Amino acid sequence: MQKQIQSASSTKKIQPTSAVLIANPTSGSYVDNKKQVDETVQFLQAQGWDAHLQLTQRQGDAGRIAREAVERNIDVVVAIGGDGTINEVIQELAGSETALGILPSGTVNVWAREVGIPLENEAARDILLQGQRRRIDLSKVDDRYFLLMAGIGLDAEVTHEVEQKPAKKLGVPGYLLVGLWKTLTFKGFRVYLHIDGKKSIKAHAMQIVIGNTQLYGGAIKYTWQAKCNDGLLDVCIARSQDLINTLLMGIDVLLHRRQRRQWVLYETCKEVEIRTRHAITIQVDGDPSGFTSERGVINVSKELC
Ligand SMILES: Nc1ncnc2c1ncn2[C@@H]1O[C@H](COP(=O)(O)OP(=O)(O)OP(=O)(O)O)[C@@H](O)[C@H]1O
């Protein structure tokens, strides 16, 4: 059986009685949503929920609060933030009976878009009340879970750059600007992948995306066949190209065209080992997560439990 968490969105109806809502006040659209968040807590309490709101004060708080909620057998932990906050929360919910709920309040909100949770607070809270639980897979880069995807190469470079620069304050346009700059300057890297312990691939890659889900950055689909309940990782290796072909590939991927296949190697597997000769950046669920050289071999898997 796969290591899974429960997500409030489809098969078995529940009526949760206890909930901890964890809000990241620094997430992309929290300031605009603050009033609705307070109203949502009151609304849930009026519906009979034992619901409490806790704000994070720094990175790591969401994980700590989620861990305490699991220890107290809370029914639902509601992440109010973006995919980075959700990623902190799932580290603690993995394998537990505590379900994950979402009130989207991030910049891009990829998970919410992937599973069809409305971005408007009022509609999203209805999912908390009326939605259904379902079990979903989690994948792992070494010992860190991810819900969406891990990226190595160009996208991780962009994530690392945006994190250190004022570009983050610009939100999505900041990512696009840094992304364009990196696309023009990133040289690609040599990589060796060992898939399910039997198949080897060598490539000169610009980007590797390992997906638990399909949506990437809210619009693109690198791992277009991925399902978060099939027990399989989808691995998309975008081969390094000259500038013109990189732009053509970008258009094909952006428009979800069938011919995007010509630019990539696509594999489905249960686990993959990745080696690079030089330090290449890694991102996990859209947040920076170190460099390949620190680790030697990176193991990505869907964990059995
Ligand atoms: N109070 C806080 N202060 C600073 N950072 C925080 C705080 N709470 C959480 N974080 C961190 O902020 C990072 C980004 O948050 P989050 O992903 O929720 O928002 P976002 O980046 O706007 O949204 P998205 O990921 O959907 O684009 C996460 O890595 C999270 O761990």
From TrEMBL:
Keywords, in A-Z order: ATP-binding, Kinase, Lipid biosynthesis, Lipid metabolism, Magnesium, Metal-binding, Nucleotide-binding, Phospholipid biosynthesis, Phospholipid metabolism, Transferase
GO biological process, one term: phospholipid biosynthetic process
Cofactor (UniProt): Mg(2+)
GO cellular component, one term: plasma membrane
Gene Ontology MF terms in the entry: ATP binding; ATP-dependent diacylglycerol kinase activity; metal ion binding
Classification via Gene3D superfamilies: 2.60.200.40, Probable inorganic polyphosphate/atp-NAD kinase, domain 1 (3.40.50.10330)
Residue ranges constituting the DAGKc domain according to the UniProt record: 14-145
Pfam families named among the record's database cross-references: DAGK_cat (PF00781), YegS_C (PF19279)
Family classification: Belongs to the diacylglycerol/lipid kinase family.
The protein's name in its UniProt record: Diacylglycerol kinase catalytic region
Source species: Ktedonobacter racemifer DSM 44963
Phylogenetic placement of the source organism: Bacteria, Bacillati, Chloroflexota, Ktedonobacteria, Ktedonobacterales
